[in-house]
Amino acid sequence: MKVEPMRPELNIAHEPGVAKADPVLIIDGMRRAFGGLRAVDIDHLEFQRNTITSIIGPNGAGKTTLFNLLTGFDTPDHGQYSLDGELLIGVPAHQVAQRGMVRTFQLTKVLPRLTVLENLLVAAKTQPGATFRGAMLGGWQGAERQNEEQARDILQRFGLIAMANEYAGRLSGGQRKLLEMARALMVGPTVVMLDEPTAGVNPVLIQSLLEHVKGLRDSGMTVLFVEHDMDVVQSISDWVVVVAEGHVIAEGPPGVIARNPAVIEAYLGKHRGEDVA
Questions:
Q1: Which of 101, 72, 68, 108 is nearest to 84 (CA)?
Q2: Which pTM does this prediction carry?
């Protein structure tokens, strides 16, 4: 029998700004505007360690912009955020990843002319032979072997090992989503951020993909999960954060959020209230 790891209890609340028992990621006063549009306007938000937190909201609510800010692909106009107590404002994207926070994208960004295995190897945290000094000093072959062993283990876990030597451009949309998730694990992340991982995925593969997402959490990682499908949100989430027009309007367990009148009005639509309760 599989034993589920212990996870900290979450507060049963649905007001924004809820304090968590063991937050891994904390946002304070984060603002980002594009012209007259304020895409992100968050006073305070915490993400509980070792949980799956879904971030939901209508199109244009600021979900992807939030991911861009947290992972160093964009810079907030104001505010700060920290990962395990370390401030990351101004840290470039590749260094954010090395410090333990990685992401996938709505549109997959695999390297189509590299093999599936090579797509993982380029993301390895240690690349000792990639610098002039490392190449000259030698000894990097052992690290390369370790990287390849790690990559093959991850591909095995995601059911992609048989395609290790195939060009990534030949993969289906669902397989590319899995490859992006697999590649993210090469840096040994603390937080994995998945931006609409089920979008465009064959329904047959969605359940497999969601099992892999749960596996990330069960391996001790924290998962942030942007999703529009409320059935998926209900089935996979430990906690849900709802955003609208850049603001966090509610957060709480999925069952509580589904019955929140503000959420139903802002995102789900009043006429769908009974469908999601």
A1: 101
A2: 0.83
